[in-house]
Prior knowledge:
Elements: H1 18-22, H2 43-46, H3 68-78, H4 81-140, H5 151-164, E1 167-176, E2 185-197, E3 221-234, E4 238-241, E5 244-247, E6 250-251, H6 255-259, E7 262-267, E8 273-274, E9 281-283, H7 297-309, E10 316-318, E11 333-337, H8 347-362, H9 364-367, E12 369-374, E13 377-379, H10 389-392, E14 394-395, E15 410-415
Antiparallel strand pairs: 1-2, 1-8, 2-3, 3-7, 4-5, 5-6, 9-10, 10-11, 11-15, 12-13, 12-15, 13-14
Amino acid sequence: MTGWSSTGPSAFPFLPSPAGLSCAGQGFRGVHAPRSVPSRPTDRFRSRLPAPSAGTEPPDRHAKAPSSSVRRRRLQGRRDDGQANVLLLFGLTLSLLALTVLFVRVGAANDMRSQAQTAADASVLAAVAGLRDHAARQLSDGVHPMPRYDEEIARSRAETYARNNGGVLTDIRASDNAMGRFGNIVRVEVRGALCQKELTEDGSRAWNDVVCDGEEDASGSFEGTAAAIAIIDLSAECGRESDGLVCGGQDVTDQDQAREFFDVHLIDQEGRFKFDPNSVFGGGAITDCGSLGGLHPQMCAAHEALNQEFPGFYLSAGGYRDEAGSDHGYGQAVDYMMADLGATPTPEMDATAIEVIDFLIANAQDLNVKGIIYNYHIWSPSRDSTGPWMEVRRPANRVYGNPTLDHVDHIHLSAGPPPFR
């Protein structure tokens, strides 16, 4: 095979030359050369790359890459993610601590209120229970009990029970719904023995400093305060019979039995009238005018005449009290209770009341009677005719909706010089 060269460009005359391969598409349209990956970017791709700026040499592709330690130092210098996470955790920890202290103080404040309320409840019940003991002694002696407020006894018991329950008594007062005559409703105010003081910026006061002596500045401390109201009521119906005083259908023989007839409990509202310590009211058949306060001589004479004619017809009686708009304030009126305070008289007691009133009307001139009020009705010799009560009485000018104010539970008798007040 002479004339053939295995290495020359014309060794295979039927194949395109290398020059023809580089110019494919110009002289050899029907022959496709195998595609190869260019070692450099083509003009088509090169046109998309940013041109190097003037005075800047293109980067050397063969330059040595920086070591791992250099890259690590560069990353640490450029990014603060790790430090930010530490600061965030520290801030969250401080916030949680502040919230914990806040919740502890709020919980302590609620506990102080609860403790003060417990002390107030115990204090007022103890104060009213002292009135019950006195009334039970009266009842066991055959005298209709009139639970009457005694500040010395009530305050002493209230202070003791408040102190025993972690409180301090700050105020005590009495009221009733019977024009201030009895004071059988008692209200107390108590503060806790502990208080919560405001924290100081300099840290001189510990957050758990809760010991108070009662002289703290109100604007700089918090202390639990509470109030409570209690009442004493006669739970059994009492009346007079031929054998004496009967309560609950049975004779009262001893003080322990008498104590069971009284109910002491908490209520939500004070009485309508503030207790008047100058009012005079007593239980049982009171014949001594001096026991009813400074009665006018004509009122005293009428009172003595009634006790002589109807001995022991009433449960209790009340005379003078400081009330300028009433004859009581002038010593010219006496109230004769025909039922328990706020109750309705039994049929027997009501019949007795009518009999007594008929006697007063028939002898009004001799007894200097100015007026009578009983069971929503009124009578006065200056306006009404003489006759039986049920026939000559007239409705009272005003209805209060209260058994005592409407004179349902007692007879009001005014005697003395006019006018009728």
